[in-house]
Structure to design on (203 residues):
């Protein structure tokens, strides 16, 4: 499964945002764009530049490549409702994202790896496709053979309570989570201006 394998620190500096969950990217030592002229130049972006930057933020945040992102946008645009909201709801419904949101993994990249290695079950069946779209009512659980993995146990310790987010519920003792509903836009905590992406693709 294709994914971005390049330097993540440079991406965060270029986008001026911590688009990866790891703490080491939240406060970079060099808080300016990469490259020879980075320290002396962070000029005002054009409207197009702002739109492109927002699209790149969302792509890297959810771990999708350009072609995948375009497909998500086309489907969101064809659905009834607000296109930007549809787009974020589709990305939030990805299995790797849901595994991360439930607290089974510390980052989306780690969640993606857990899924591809077959450590997760959806409604009792093994699913190893990170982009698998989870539906309301689906149960996601860690396989019995994977329940003692250090990464999962350390990550789940940081989860407080059983209602992590309004659309998710988790039983930490059994390592079972429920995707109770597709989130409303107001419930998605990411600081994203999806309208800029809609404007970009509407040209």
């Amino acid at each position: 499964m294709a994914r971005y394998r390049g330097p993540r620190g440079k991406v965060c500096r270029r986008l001026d945002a911590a688009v990866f969950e790891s703490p080491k990217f939240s406060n970079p030592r060099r808080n300016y764009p990469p490259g020879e002229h980075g320290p002396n130049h962070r000029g005002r972006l054009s409207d197009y530049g702002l739109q492109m930057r927002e699209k790149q933020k969302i792509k890297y945040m959810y771990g999708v490549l350009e072609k995948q992102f375009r497909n998500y946008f086309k489907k969101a645009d064809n659905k009834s409702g607000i296109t930007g909201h549809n787009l974020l709801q589709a990305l939030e419904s990805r299995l790797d994202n849901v595994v991360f949101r439930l607290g089974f993994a510390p980052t989306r990249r780690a969640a993606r790896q857990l899924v591809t290695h077959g450590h997760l079950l959806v409604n009792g069946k093994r699913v190893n496709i990170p982009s698998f779209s989870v539906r309301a009512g689906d149960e996601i659980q860690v396989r019995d053979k994977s329940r003692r993995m250090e990464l999962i146990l350390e990550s789940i310790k940081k989860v407080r309570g059983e209602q992590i987010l309004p659309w998710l519920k988790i039983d930490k003792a059994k390592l079972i989570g429920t995707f109770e509903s597709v989130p409303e836009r107001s419930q998605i905590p990411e600081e994203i201006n999806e309208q800029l992406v809609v404007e970009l693709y509407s040209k």
